[in-house]
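[Meeting: bench + compute handoff]

Bench side (C.D.) handed over the final construct sequence. Compute side (W.E.) agreed to return the predicted structure before the next meeting so the bench team could plan truncations. Sequence as handed over:
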Amino acid sequence: MYGDLCLKTYLCILKHEKYKKRMIEEVIRIETKDLVDIYGVNNENIQLLRKAFPKVKLIDRGNELRVLGDEANMEEFTTFFSRLERHYTKYNKLTYSDILLLLENGEKLEAGTEEPLGDDVILHGREGRVIRARTPNQLRLTKSIYVNDMVFAVGPAGTGKTYTAIALAVRALKNREVKRLILTRPAVEAGERLGFLPGDLKDKLDPYLLPLYDALGDMIPAKRLHSLMEEGTIQIAPLAYMRGRTLDRAFVILDEAQNTSLGQLKMFLTRMGCDAKFIVTGDATQIDLPDKRSSGLVRGIEIVKNIRGISIIEFDRDDIVRHPLVTKIVDAFEEYEQKDELRDEGGKHELRKKGEKREERDKNDKIE
């Protein structure tokens, strides 16, 4: 499981004539493919632990760390190693400096981290980076997913809808609330024809899914992300691949939902299985479908908005967390589109007036 050291410990009592005390051997099984994360470069973390606990013998054998010592020393070591496990699970890192700090101030530090964090903190990403809800609506999304199994997050570009949703999904996976994390989006070209793309099916689809990879890369170390994807714990797939599936114990995100038809949206929403969480994100102003009227997002929300257990969160320009220019660009485009609509309405009005005049002339001609 993501961010985990699985401490499967085996105890055996060793009888030895040299020792009057009972000697205990424990086997700590470390379930991570990148052992450097735990052992350190050139096993420097293990060397530090040997110096810190000289009365305990440490033997590293791949994914197994064998520990030998008497009962008192073993208890001291395993207590400390559990502290290392909690640190690694929370911060996704365990450096030489981290171990030194925990050796010197472990109890104080851990007592500090047990205090409630702010509601805005979602999780710690790569290298301990704090990922938090940065706007009121991001915070609403963070709280809403606790009490609702399905949430729609809609609004303009740059408001952090997708990023926040993925952070919540990674946290749920890390906390073992779900077994799988599934990210999907419709494979629709954004206003241009890409033509033939080389490679196998994954190579052809990856360009459409790149924003999802980018967000995950901020939260999970690259090697661990690769292994989680290989084993199917994290899945990224186009929307068409969702048909026929039942998604139990999964956290599922549909991104760019404005590019789905109403039928596709219904197909996706009805994939929900037991103990699942769904987040749907989209921006109704950025529809890339050939016929913008065929987008199912706004109509879909209207259909399900009164169902208990479904929450609708509308992001706005105040939630934009990208470069300050993005807010100004969004405002400028909205102003232009409003003027364009007025021009269109004016043009339609003129056409109606001309049509009415033509009908009146035709009527008069018939009377004459």
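W.E. noted at the follow-up: DSSP finds eleven helices and twelve strands in the chain. C.D. will use this when planning the next construct.
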